[in-house]
């Protein structure tokens, strides 16, 4: 797999710009994981943190699911990796967890997110509510939050990848 990162358009309308930056950050996380073995993707390389690249991808699958399925579209979509007993389950990997499964799940959640977002305008209010606060959000806020979420975790991915095999890059 070779990840192609597309720079967002510099003169696009607001929605195209937001979607472009979100896709850019999705592609950046995939790029940071590219070319590594399952064992390397499960490696917690920045002590004392237990964070791994595969754990980040699984986390982002949960985040995509939460914001675009549960909040935006009010779907009754349960968790993928976490449980009530293990609220950080997406980060707790076993030897049987594979990149193939994590990547496929993440990509499926991204496609679902795109499908659900296409039904809403930027100012449209979500059909569902945030599970903790009960708030509703417009799609613009969700896009902006998702860009922030990916940008923060891509910084983590930079450090993890460099420690795993020395690879660096923007």
From TrEMBL:
Organism per entry: Streptomyces ureilyticus
Protein name: DinB family protein
Pfam families according to UniProt: MST
């Amino acid at each position: 797999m070779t990840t192609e990162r597309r720079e967002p358009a510099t003169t696009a309308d607001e929605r195209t710009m937001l979607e472009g930056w979100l896709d850019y950050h999705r592609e950046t996380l995939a790029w940071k994981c590219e070319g590594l073995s399952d064992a390397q993707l499960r490696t917690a390389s920045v002590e004392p943190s237990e964070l791994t690249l595969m754990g980040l991808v699984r986390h982002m699958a949960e985040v995509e699911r939460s914001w675009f399925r549960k909040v935006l579209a009010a779907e009754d979509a349960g968790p993928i990796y976490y449980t009530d007993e293990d609220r950080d389950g997406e980060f707790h990997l076993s030897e049987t967890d594979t990149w193939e499964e994590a990547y496929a799940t993440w990509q499926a959640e991204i496609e679902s997110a795109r499908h659900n977002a296409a039904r809403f305008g930027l100012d449209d209010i979500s059909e569902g509510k945030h599970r903790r606060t009960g708030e509703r959000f417009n799609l613009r806020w969700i896009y902006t939050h998702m860009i922030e979420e990916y940008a923060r975790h891509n910084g983590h991915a930079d450090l993890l990848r460099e420690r795993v095999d020395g690879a660096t890059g923007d």
